[in-house]
Write a structure and sequence with these properties.
- By secondary structure, the chain is α/β, with parallel strands linked by helices.
- The chain has 4 domains: 3-156, Alpha-D-Glucose-1,6-Bisphosphate, Chain A, domain 3 (3-Layer(aba) Sandwich), CATH 3.40.120; 180-291, Alpha-D-Glucose-1,6-Bisphosphate, Chain A, domain 3, CATH 3.40.120; 293-412 and 427-435, 3-Layer(aba) Sandwich (Alpha-D-Glucose-1,6-Bisphosphate, Chain A, domain 3); 443-521, Alpha-D-phosphohexomutase, C-terminal domain (TATA-Binding Protein), CATH 3.30.310.
- The protein has 18 helices and 19 strands.
- The protein has helices at residues 3-11, 36-53, 88-96, 100-113, 133-146, 159-170, 177-192, 211-222, 244-250, 293-309, 331-340, 352-359, 380-389, 394-405, 413-427, 431-435, 471-481, 507-521; strands at 28-31, 57-61, 70-76, 122-127, 150-156, 202-205, 228-231, 266-269, 276-281, 288-291, 321-325, 344-347, 364-368, 374-378, 443-448, 457-459, 464-467, 486-491, 498-503.
- Strands 1-3-2-4-5 form a 5-stranded mixed sheet, sandwiched between helices. It has a 5-stranded mixed sheet with strand order 7-6-8-9-10, with helices on both faces.
- α1 (3-11) packs across α4 (100-113), α2 (36-53) packs across α5 and α13 (380-389) packs across α14.
- It binds 2-acetamido-2-deoxy-1-O-phosphono-alpha-D-galactopyranose and zinc ion.
């Protein structure tokens, strides 16, 4: 690395706005015009991370479910998971540098403190469909190149596709986009082989995002094995009254679904296709019945446990299965998992990096946020055992198909669609049977705009407020007065708001509780 060249390059990406962005729940996010300096510096950072680890890293320019004017960056470690949390502080330090001198000083400090060898590394870059993508990918590539490293432009991809590609690449496996479709499609075909397709196809809301084109490729590859009609596939209207986040927060039909018959099986992706929810129209108005991430986790657990049951022998300890949730999980789902499935539940703070880490502690770790972001992880020991059982065991073969089909790097809506479709198909279930497993407790989420969201701090996986003092007591008394009430507040990691969650025995009680708690936050 030549310091003069680096400084010259950094000077092209100074931060004139002086707005200091910080690494949030899933990277940096802001209105797109504020981002070039931060994305450039993330290019520097991921080149350094690749040098440090000796692997290929990744960077996705996306703001997920946020409005089209926003953009952001998600960072991928060589494992295919999100950037190691210990490096988030470096990301913040780089983002906060005032000018080229400040940026170069942080780079030099990073080399020294992290004991990074000099050399050249590779960073894979991708982006979603936002109009601001090109300029930001250019900034990221300039950052990588300034370190004397190689940026590989992978073009438009879903976030989980790039995570998958990075993971495969570092494992020395086929990692092109084509290989992704191949792995998912062949896994699915093996998993549903001999199980007839339902008579009705799936209708998917693609949020007018990058998932539309990618799911189409997958569906074409699988036809007629997967019958899916894709809607909201346009170049305009990203996440606008559609998408998984809209469905989960608003609980009403997305744009373009007014004509779907009641009872039709529908699914919705978010703008970068890492979240998935299912839904069904309910009644004549635009009301929907939502099948959220908690319910997908339960269905995944049922599928896995059915298959694992036949592998249990007296000689070997049974594989461990755990479900990881956050405080946003509906209380009814947690009760069902613990009481009916008799499966272990772990609760972590919001953000898949926390859920993912907890899920790795099981042979099969299933994690989903209520908003539909999640996946299933399989331990190396279990996969090895499945291979040993090989062709003699139908369930082992089905589990190995699942291992190929599920994106184990990160939550993936495309892989998630196949997971749900396969599970329903193997059980000969439609949405009514899935819905009948348990009834969600009515809940309500609100956002409160405050001058400084960082004054709210929490503990116990975000279920208790530590500061400001006195707030937790107020929440406790509000909860005590609501039938089957539960509520908590936490500062968002992606928006400038404090989030309020409440659930109770009736919708009006949940609404009242959320409103009361929100007033206490103000
Ligand atoms: P914040 O803004 O920290 O609540 C939101 C979601 C997370 C996660 C991230 C990243 C909720 C309540 N929070 O985080 O679950 O998906 O965005 O996209 O849905
Ligand atoms: Zn997303």
């Amino acid at each position: 690395m030549d310091l003069g060249t680096l400084k010259e390059s950094c000077s092209q990406y100074n931060n004139p706005s002086k707005v200091k962005l910080t690494y949030g729940t899933a990277g940096f996010r802001a209105e797109a015009s504020l981002l070039p300096s931060t994305v450039y510096r993330c290019g520097l950072l991921m080149a350094l991370r690749a040098l440090k680890t000796g692997g290929v890293t990744g960077l996705v320019v996306t703001a997920s479910h946020n409005p089209v004017e926003d953009n952001g960056v998600k960072l991928v470690d060589p494992t295919g998971y999100m950037l190691d949390q210990a490096w988030e502080a470096w990301a913040n330090k780089l983002a906060a540098a005032d000018d080229e001198d400040g940026t170069c000083a942080v780079v030099q400090e990073l080399f020294q403190v992290e004991d990074i060898p000099y050399g050249s590394s590779t960073v894979m870059l991708a982006h979603d469909t936002r109009p601001s993508a090109d300029a930001l990918v250019k900034a990221a590539a300039a950052g990588v190149a300034a370190m004397g490293s190689l940026p590989i432009a992978c073009g438009q991809l879903t976030t989980p596709q790039l995570h998958w590609m990075v993971r495969q690449c570092n494992a020395g496996l086929k990692h092109k986009e084509k290989a992704y479709y191949e792995a998912l499609a062949t896994g699915y075909a093996r998993l549903v082989s001999g199980h007839p397709a339902p008579s009705e196809g799936l209708i998917v809301d693609c949020a007018n995002g990058v998932g539309a084109a990618k799911l189409q490729v997958l569906a074409d590859r699988l036809a007629p094995g997967l019958s899916a009609e894709l809607r909201n596939t346009g170049a305009e209207g990203l996440n606008d009254c559609c998408g998984a986040d809209f469905l989960q927060k608003e609980r009403r039909l997305p744009a373009g679904f007014q004509d779907v018959p009641e009872g039709a099986r529908c699914a919705s992706l978010d703008g970068d296709a890492d979240r998935l929810v299912y839904f069904q129209r309910r009644g004549a108005a635009d009301e929907v019945h939502l099948f959220d991430g908690d319910r997908i986790a339960v269905l995944a657990a049922l599928l896995v446990m059915d298959l694992l049951r036949s592998l249990i022998t007296a000689e070997q300890p049974p594989p461990t299965v755990g479900i990881v949730q956050t405080a946003y999980a509906n209380g009814a789902s947690t009760a069902y998992i613990e009481e009916k499935l008799k499966c272990e539940v772990r609760v972590t703070p919001t953000g898949v990096k926390h859920l993912h880490a907890a899920a790795e502690e099981f042979d099969v770790g299933i994690y989903f946020e209520a908003n539909g972001h999640g996946t299933v992880l399989f331990s190396a020991a279990l996969v090895q055992r499945l291979h040993e059982l090989g062709d003699d065991s139908g369930p082992a073969k089905a589990l190995l198909a699942l291992v190929d089909m599920v994106n184990q790097a990160v939550g993936d809506a495309l892989s998630g669609v196949l997971l749900v479709e396969a599970a329903l198909r193997r059980k000969k279930w439609g949405l009514p049977e899935w819905a009948a497993l348990y009834t969600d407790l009515p809940s309500r989420q609100l956002k409160v705009k405050v001058a400084d969201r960082s004054v709210v701090t929490t503990s116990h996986a975000e279920t208790r407020v530590e500061s400001p003092s006195g707030l937790q007591q107020l929440i406790d008394s509000a909860v005590a007065a609501a039938p089957s009430g539960r509520a908590f507040v936490r500062p968002s990691g992606t928006e400038d708001v404090v989030r309020v969650y409440a659930e109770a025995a009736t919708q009006s009680a949940a609404d009242d509780l959320a409103r009361l708690v929100a007033r206490h936050v103000h």
